[in-house]
């Protein structure tokens, strides 16, 4: 695999991809847009979309993963010179593991004809993404197998991510729910197998439809999955999400660049500052800020600490889903130790919102290294104990070996990333492949699995915690001196010391704290290796104090979409084991 | 007081004994709910319930008050008769089984010459509680739980009986007192080690204790067959499970660990200590083990335990014949 250094700012020179597309569709069919996303952004017309996608998917060194698919309401966007006329733009971000690069296709749509051909036959994970776009923007995908609302309630009116849809409760009538209204809502949620092309019976067998969730001890939050059962064998299943939807993307359009940071914390609520990371990096690309080495290292250290904390939660609940009741208490003891360090450094526990545009909120407190070292010394023996008592336990192995196994190929087709992808043996970790924030300076390994089953997904995360501890150790040993904030006019809030020196800096400080910084119109994106897979923020700035469009691509969303493809033919306990092994939180799915 | 003939006195004493044993069994079941939580807390680096009374000793009373005053709800879609009957069976069948257990040389309710068979019969009836509860609730999770319970209990009862046949053959009687007396020299756990192992496994399975709690399997079935029960009806299932634990522990002690036999201490203390040791073992198993998959539990029963008990019985028979060819 080529490990090309990923340079976000330089325009990509090579362009076999553009050449291939132009050769096929003519020079006029492809328009290149220059952005700060670090990838090739191409506008194509609706007519050639399907062919272009299949060309990219089937070319040598293919773009085998549909990484993201969403849309932008462009109707109020002022700064879009040189771009095709468009009311709604749908974008398809494709990823190639072997090339280690991405390409984004954009399609312009006009208000009177919001339709596109579906891509489900090319990329199976387009299914939910297209449903989301339908739900949020009202764009119709012709040929989609079941174009129903995904995140909003089935009874909802309107498409929330359109610019003319209200964002705040005060823009709507006060909410009321009558008994009749409740009955209507309940009825709308009733599962009708026929809608999904399922049979109620076959031959002599009458199937049972079991509604698992949204309240179920093993659903890890408000997640619902309807099972078609023959005895305890799962014939088919339909995951249903949206119960945890809070409109994080819409909020991005109403918060200043700075005041949106706490919202990111709550996307993957077990990841803490790990969520700030991609957002802040994307904003810094727009702002053109180069942060100090100290800030970079502090960020890595805190992110890795949260990775351990999240993996510990995973390990405890994963084993609990396998019926072992004790481990979760031990891992929570460890998490408490991690939180003591996090609390001492950031002042908060779960949602520190601690990264800032241009740095972090505060410098490390005195004595942080002693605290952190205490945690790093505490963990290895515990991890060994978990391995010996649980991962080597015959029942655990029997419950997870060869359960819900999938290959690298299947994983990529479904958009699976992170530890779940690496469990299949695919060596793709963004910290190595596309180092950000200085990860290239650290010495660590990327653990890989072999079978891609529920066991590997568990074992691999224990190994990842060890590697994170290695990274933290290096941070402790080699923490660079210097400022914790960049010396840049857009650093928010600006360093306070300088505010007191001069009227100019005082005014800047005041404006940035009251209105927020203004970022130049452009688009940027940053992917990071988050706790559960690849998390990215795709930001569109229209030259304002807030984002024009904030697209949050989370890893858990495709992971859940993949469930039916690996669970058919399994038993109910296998499903529970698989749910435990995915490591998802519903906030990360629904956003 | 001429009516106080020796017969009447004897029956009065017997009734009193029976009443005491009944109360102790129920109370022990109830106390176990708290003891278990405290023990789990100890092993899981946490406190467990320690707020009510000194060291949480009055937790049981708080639980009782709560469970008695909860709304006793019967779902409108449930089959009322069976729904009400199920917890009663759960509790009664297990309590009745205590009848056959000889606690000390003079204590015990009934001295049946078919003692063991009576226990098997009661364990068989106990399945109906789960089956009725699960079916009458009109809930799919409860139904799956009931299905699992009946399949599991059926398979495990097959070899539970066979596991004890070695003991019966060595004693030459089904009577529990005879069995205890036959262990004066050597506890049956040594000659009947495999019988003990398989009976322990079957005992856990029959009481639906972890790791054989397939019918409840919180992570999968969200409490299984008693999901729709509330208040004291749930309480009866709940306490019933612990009574079952006490019962199986008492049986293991009686059949394999010499019952009340032991040096120095009075018989009743020995009996209580041995039973307590097994109760703790039950809790420890729950704290330590993950849950195997349901179909594996079944195949383990049929493919491993059943042949093992058969071989054990065969060898025992052979040894008896060789040692004492009539």
From TrEMBL, chain A:
Molecular function terms from GO: NAD binding; NADH dehydrogenase (quinone) (non-electrogenic) activity; NADH dehydrogenase (ubiquinone) activity; quinone binding
Location of region: NADH dehydrogenase I subunit D: 206-591
EC class of the enzyme, as a word: translocase
EC number(s) reported in the record: 7.1.1.-
Highest taxon of source: Bacteria
Residue ranges of domain NADH-quinone oxidoreductase subunit D in the record: 321-591
Annotated region (NADH dehydrogenase I subunit C), positions in chain: 1-182
Cellular localization per UniProt: Cell inner membrane; Cell membrane
Protein's membrane topology: Peripheral membrane protein
InterPro entries the record matches: NADH_DH_suC (IPR010218), NADH_DH_suCD (IPR023062), NADH_Q_OxRdtase_suD (IPR001135), NADH_quin_OxRdtase_su_C/D-like (IPR037232), NADH_UbQ_OxRdtase_30kDa_su (IPR001268), NADH_UbQ_OxRdtase_49kDa_CS (IPR014029), NDH1_su_D/H (IPR022885), NiFe-Hase_large (IPR029014)
Keywords: Cell membrane, Membrane, Multifunctional enzyme, NAD, Quinone, Translocase, Transport, Ubiquinone
Single Gene Ontology BP annotation: respiratory electron transport chain
Any single Pfam family the record assigns to this protein: Complex1_30kDa
NADH:ubiquinone oxidoreductase 30kDa subunit domain: residues covered: 42-169
Annotated catalysed reactions: a quinone + NADH + 5 H(+)(in) = a quinol + NAD(+) + 4 H(+)(out)
Record family assignment: In the N-terminal section; belongs to the complex I 30 kDa subunit family. In the C-terminal section; belongs to the complex I 49 kDa subunit family.
Subunit composition and interactions: NDH-1 is composed of 13 different subunits. Subunits NuoB, CD, E, F, and G constitute the peripheral sector of the complex.
Function in brief: NDH-1 shuttles electrons from NADH, via FMN and iron-sulfur (Fe-S) centers, to quinones in the respiratory chain. The immediate electron acceptor for the enzyme in this species is believed to be ubiquinone. Couples the redox reaction to proton translocation (for every two electrons transferred, four hydrogen ions are translocated across the cytoplasmic membrane), and thus conserves the redox energy in a proton gradient.
Protein name (database record): NADH-quinone oxidoreductase subunit C/D
Organism: Halomonas cupida
UniProtKB/TrEMBL annotation, chain B:
InterPro entries: NADH_UbQ_OxRdtase_su1/FPO, NADH_UbQ_OxRdtase_su1_CS
Main location: membrane
Catalytic reactions of this protein: a quinone + NADH + 5 H(+)(in) = a quinol + NAD(+) + 4 H(+)(out)
Pfam family, one: NADHdh
Keyword check for Transmembrane: yes
Enzyme Commission number: 7.1.1.-
Keyword Heme attributed: no
Topology relative to the membrane: Multi-pass membrane protein
Chain segments annotated as transmembrane: 7-32, 81-101, 113-133, 154-174, 186-206, 242-262, 268-289, 301-323
Source organism, top-level taxon: Bacteria
Cellular component terms per the entry's GO annotation: plasma membrane
Keywords associated with the record: Cell membrane, Membrane, NAD, Quinone, Translocase, Transmembrane, Transmembrane helix, Ubiquinone
Molecular-function GO terms, alphabetical: NADH dehydrogenase activity; oxidoreductase activity, acting on NAD(P)H, quinone or similar compound as acceptor; quinone binding
Class of enzymatic activity (EC top level): translocase
Family that this chain belongs to: Belongs to the complex I subunit 1 family.
Biological role stated in the UniProt entry: NDH-1 shuttles electrons from NADH, via FMN and iron-sulfur (Fe-S) centers, to quinones in the respiratory chain. The immediate electron acceptor for the enzyme in this species is believed to be ubiquinone. Couples the redox reaction to proton translocation (for every two electrons transferred, four hydrogen ions are translocated across the cytoplasmic membrane), and thus conserves the redox energy in a proton gradient. This subunit may bind ubiquinone.
Subunit structure: NDH-1 is composed of 14 different subunits. Subunits NuoA, H, J, K, L, M, N constitute the membrane sector of the complex.
Protein's UniProt name: NADH-quinone oxidoreductase subunit H
Species this chain originates from: Halomonas cupida
Lineage: Bacteria, Pseudomonadati, Pseudomonadota, Gammaproteobacteria, Oceanospirillales
Name of encoding gene: nuoH
């Amino acid at each position: 695999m080529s490990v090309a250094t990923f340079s976000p700012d330089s325009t990509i020179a090579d362009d076999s991809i553009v050449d291939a597309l132009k050769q096929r569709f003519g020079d006029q069919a492809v328009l290149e847009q220059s952005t700060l996303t670090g990838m090739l952004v191409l506008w194509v017309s609706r007519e050639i979309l399907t062919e272009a996608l299949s060309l990219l998917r089937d070319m040598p060194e293919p773009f085998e993963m549909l990484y993201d698919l969403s849309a932008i309401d462009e109707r109020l966007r002022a700064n879009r010179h040189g771009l095709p006329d468009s009311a709604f733009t749908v974008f398809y971000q494709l990823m190639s593991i072997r090339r280690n690069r991405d390409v984004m296709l954009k399609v312009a749509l006009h208000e009177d004809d919001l339709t596109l051909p579906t891509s489900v036959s090319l990329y199976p994970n387009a299914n939910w993404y297209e449903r989301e776009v339908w739900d949020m923007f009202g764009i119709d995908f012709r040929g989609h197998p079941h174009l129903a609302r995904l995140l909003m309630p089935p009874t909802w009116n309107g498409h929330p991510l359109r610019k003319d849809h209200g964002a705040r409760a005060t823009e709507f009538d006060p909410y009321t729910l009558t008994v009749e209204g409740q009955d209507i809502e309940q009825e709308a949620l009733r599962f009708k197998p026929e809608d999904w092309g399922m049979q109620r019976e076959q031959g002599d067998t009458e199937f049972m439809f079991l509604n698992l969730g949204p309240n179920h001890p093993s659903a890890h939050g408000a997640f619902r999955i309807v099972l078609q059962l023959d005895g305890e064998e799962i014939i088919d299943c339909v995951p249903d999400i949206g119960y945890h939807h809070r409109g994080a993307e819409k909020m991005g359009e109403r918060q200043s660049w700075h005041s949106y940071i706490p919202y990111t914390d709550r996307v993957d609520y077990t990841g803490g500052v790990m969520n700030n990371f991609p957002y802040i990096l994307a904003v810094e690309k727009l702002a053109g800020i180069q942060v100090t080495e100290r800030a970079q290292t502090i960020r890595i250290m805190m992110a890795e600490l949260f990775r351990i904390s999240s993996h510990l939660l995973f390990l405890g609940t994963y084993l609990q889903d396998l019926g072992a009741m004790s481990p979760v208490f031990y891992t929570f003891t460890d998490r408490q130790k991690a939180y003591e360090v996090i609390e001492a450094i950031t002042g908060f526990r779960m949602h520190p919102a601690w990264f800032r545009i241009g740095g972090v909120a505060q410098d490390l407190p005195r004595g942080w290294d002693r605290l952190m070292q205490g945690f790093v010394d505490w963990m290895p023996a515990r991890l060994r104990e978990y391995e010996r008592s649980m991962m080597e336990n015959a029942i655990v192995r029997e419950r997870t070996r060869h359960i819900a196994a999938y290959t690298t190929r299947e994983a990529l087709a479904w958009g699976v990333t992170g530890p779940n992808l690496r469990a299949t043996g695919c060596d793709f970790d963004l910290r190595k492949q596309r180092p950000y924030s200085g990860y290239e300076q650290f010495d660590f390994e990327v653990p890989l699995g072999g079978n891609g089953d529920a066991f590997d997904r568990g074992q691999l995360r224990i190994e990842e915690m060890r590697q994170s501890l290695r990274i933290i150790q290096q941070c402790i040993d080699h923490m660079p001196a210097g400022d914790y904030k960049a010396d840049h006019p857009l650093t928010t809030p600006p360093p306070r010391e300088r505010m007191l020196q001069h009227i100019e800096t005082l005014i800047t400080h005041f404006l940035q704290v009251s209105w927020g910084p203004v970022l130049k119109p452009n688009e940027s994106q940053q992917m990071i290796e988050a706790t559960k897979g690849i998390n990215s923020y795709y930001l569109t700035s229209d030259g304002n104090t807030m984002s024009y469009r904030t697209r949050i691509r989370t890893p858990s969303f495709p992971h859940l979409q993949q469930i039916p493809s690996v669970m058919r033919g399994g038993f109910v306990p296998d499903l529970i084991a698989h749910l435990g092994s995915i490591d998802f939180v519903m906030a990360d799915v629904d956003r | 007081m001429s009516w106080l003939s020796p017969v009447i006195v004897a029956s009065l004493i017997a009734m009193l004994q029976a009443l005491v044993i009944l109360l102790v069994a129920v109370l022990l079941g109830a106390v176990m709910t708290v003891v278990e939580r405290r023990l789990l807390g100890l092993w899981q680096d946490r406190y467990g319930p320690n707020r009510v009374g000194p060291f949480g000793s009055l937790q049981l009373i708080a639980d009782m008050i709560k469970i008695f005053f909860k709304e006793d709800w019967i779902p409108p879609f449930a089959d009322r008769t069976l729904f009400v009957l199920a917890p009663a069976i759960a509790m009664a069948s297990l309590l009745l089984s205590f009848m056959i257990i000889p606690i000390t040389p003079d204590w015990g309710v009934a001295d049946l010459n078919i003692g063991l068979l009576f226990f098997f019969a009661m364990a068989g009836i106990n399945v109906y509680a789960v089956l009725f509860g699960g079916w009458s609730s009109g809930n799919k999770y409860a139904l799956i739980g009931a299905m699992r319970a009946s399949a599991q209990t059926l398979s495990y009862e097959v070899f539970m009986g066979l596991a004890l046949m070695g003991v019966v053959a060595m004693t030459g009687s089904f009577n529990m007192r005879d069995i205890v007396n036959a262990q004066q020299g050597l506890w049956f756990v040594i000659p009947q080690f495999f019988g003990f192992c398989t009976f322990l496994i079957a005992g856990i399975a029959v009481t639906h204790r972890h790791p054989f709690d397939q019918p409840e399997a919180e992570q999968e079935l969200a409490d299984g067959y008693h999901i729709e029960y509330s208040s004291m009806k749930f309480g009866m299932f709940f306490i019933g499970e612990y009574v079952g634990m006490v019962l199986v522990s008492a049986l293991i002690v009686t059949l394999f660990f010499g019952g009340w036999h032991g040096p120095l201490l009075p018989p009743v203390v020995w009996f209580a200590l041995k039973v307590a040791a097994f109760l703790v073992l039950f809790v420890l198993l729950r704290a330590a083990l993950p849950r195997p998959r349901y179909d594996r539990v079944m195949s383990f029963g049929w493919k491993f335990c059943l042949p093992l008990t058969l071989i054990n019985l065969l060898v025992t028979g052979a040894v008896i014949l060789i040692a004492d060819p009539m």
